[in-house]
User: Fold this.
Amino acid sequence: MTANKKKSNKEKKRVPNMKSQTLVDKKGIRLDGRKIDELRPVKMKVGILPNADGSAYLEQGRNKILVGVYGPKEAHPRHIAQQDRAVIQCRYHMAPFSVDERKSPAPSRRDIELSKVIREALEPAIFLEYYPRTSIQVYIEILQADGGTRCAGITTAALALADAGIPMRDLVVACAAGKVDWKIALDLMDTEDKVGEADVPVAFMPNLNAITLLQMDGNLSVDEFETAVTMALEGCNKLYTLQKEALKAKYIPTKEGIEK
Ligand code: ADP
Assistant:
C-alpha cells in the first residue's frame, strides 16, 4: 500500500487570483452543478484497442483516459525479470494536448512519480506469481486532464488488465475526496484541486476490502481525513458498479446477440 503525503506542486499550481473564488455556494452546489458528495459523470468502455491485449477508455467529467495493456510476456530488458513473479511496467503519460498549455511530451517528474504510485496500487490485485520472469505492461494515456487523473487512471487500468485476461484477485477502483471551501467534497475537478485546501486520493479493492493507495495533498484534521477517506470509498463503490457494467457490456452476450 502506498501511504504517503502526495508530493505535489500544489502550491506552484495555485492561481493567486482564484483564491477568492467561491467553490461551493450557500446551497452546497459546486461550480459544475454537483452536490458535495456527487461524482462527475462517468463513462467506461472496455476492449476498444484491437491491437493491445487489453484496453479500456474512461471519461470522468472532463478527464479522458485511454489504457492499453500487453502481456504477460518475456520481460525486457532481461535484468528487470523476477524469478518468482511477473513485474508490472506502468507508464502514466499526459499527452501534450491534455492541459491548457502544451505540456512537453517527454515524461515529467510528475509522470514518473504517478507511474510508480499507480503500479503500486495495481500490484496487490494481480496474481503476479502465476507468471515468473514475465512483464505486464500498462500504458496510461491522459488525453485530457481535469483533476483526479491518477485515480481515474487506476480505475481504467484495472479494466484494461481484466480485459487482457490477466488473473486478478479483485478489481482496483480509485476515487479522491478533498476539502473545498472548508467542506469535504467528493471527486475534485482541477479548479477545486488547485484552489481547494486538500485532496485525498484512495484506491481500493472492493471485494477484499483493502486500500492499495492512500495519499494526501494539503492539510486536514484527523476527523476531516477520516470523513474524506469514507467519502472516497463511497465514490469507489459507485465506480466499481460502473466498472462491472463496462466489463459485462463486452463479455456477457446480449439476448439479441444470442438470438442472431
Ligand atoms: P491528479 O490528476 O491525480 O489530481 P495532481 O494533483 O498532480 O494529480 O494534478 C491535478 C491536476 O492538475 C491534473 O489532473 C491536471 O488537470 C492538472 N495538471 C497537472 N499537470 C499539469 C501541467 N503540466 N499543466 C497544466 N495542468 C496540469
Summary: The chain is about 30% helix and 30% strand. The mean pLDDT is 92. Strands lie at 2-5, 42-46, 54-60, 63-74, 87-94, 134-144, 173-180, 183-186, 198-205, 210-218.
